[in-house]
TrEMBL record:
<feature type="DNA-binding region" description="H-T-H motif">
    <location>
        <begin position="28"/>
        <end position="47"/>
    </location>
</feature>
<dbReference type="InterPro" id="IPR050109">
    <property type="entry name" value="HTH-type_TetR-like_transc_reg"/>
</dbReference>
<dbReference type="Pfam" id="PF00440">
    <property type="entry name" value="TetR_N"/>
</dbReference>
<dbReference type="InterPro" id="IPR025996">
    <property type="entry name" value="MT1864/Rv1816-like_C"/>
</dbReference>
<dbReference type="InterPro" id="IPR036271">
    <property type="entry name" value="Tet_transcr_reg_TetR-rel_C_sf"/>
</dbReference>
<keyword id="KW-0238">DNA-binding</keyword>
<feature type="domain" description="HTH tetR-type">
    <location>
        <begin position="5"/>
        <end position="65"/>
    </location>
</feature>
<keyword id="KW-0804">Transcription</keyword>
<keyword id="KW-0805">Transcription regulation</keyword>
<protein>
    <submittedName>
        <fullName>WHG domain-containing protein</fullName>
    </submittedName>
</protein>
<dbReference type="InterPro" id="IPR001647">
    <property type="entry name" value="HTH_TetR"/>
</dbReference>
<dbReference type="Pfam" id="PF13305">
    <property type="entry name" value="TetR_C_33"/>
</dbReference>
<dbReference type="InterPro" id="IPR009057">
    <property type="entry name" value="Homeodomain-like_sf"/>
</dbReference>
Amino acid sequence: MVRAGLNAQRLITAAADLADEVGYDNVTLSALARRFGVKDASLYSHIRNLQDLRTRLALFAGGEMIDHIAAAVAGRAGKDALTAFAGTYREYARRYPGRYAATQIRIGRSLVTDSPAMRRTAEITYGMLRAYGLDEPDLTDAVRLLRSTFHGYCVLEATGAFGAPRDVEASWAKAVDALHVALEHWPRERKRSDD
C-alpha cells in the first residue's frame, strides 16, 4: 500500500478493519505496519504504542457503534426504542466482531469524560432509559443490566454456546421483552427522609 497520507485516522480505521478480520487480540503495531507496507517505526509519529492504538480503536468503535444506535432509536421511545437499541447493538457486535471487542476494554475515566463519542453514548442510553421514568441511581443500575444482558448474549451467540434447539432469534426477542417489563416495573431506589 501507499505510504503517502499516513495519519492517525487512517491507521485507526485500518486497525478496526484488521480487528474484524483477525480478531482484536491480534491487532499489533507490526500487523498494522504490514498492512501499509511500512516499518513499525513509521507508525510512531501517529501512534505512541500498542496501548494508544487500542485505546483509540476503542473510542473509534464506540463512536461508530453509538452512531448506528442513535440512528436506530431516533424518534422512538419505550419498548420501540429499547428494541431498536438492542437490535442495533447486537447487529454491530455480529457484523464487526473485532471493533465490538475493542468497545469492551477499560478506558481511563479522563479519556471517557473527554470523548464526545462516550458522552454521546451516555446521552443516548440514559435518554432512552429516562423514558421509563428512571433517575439516578436507578439509571446506572439499568445501564449495567442492559449492557451485561446484551454483551452476554452477543458473546455466547458468537461462540456458538447456545446449543438448545430453541431459535436464538426467538430467545433474543424474549430477552428484550423481559428487559422492557423489568424497566417498566423497576424496583426504584427509595429516598431516605432526614427525620
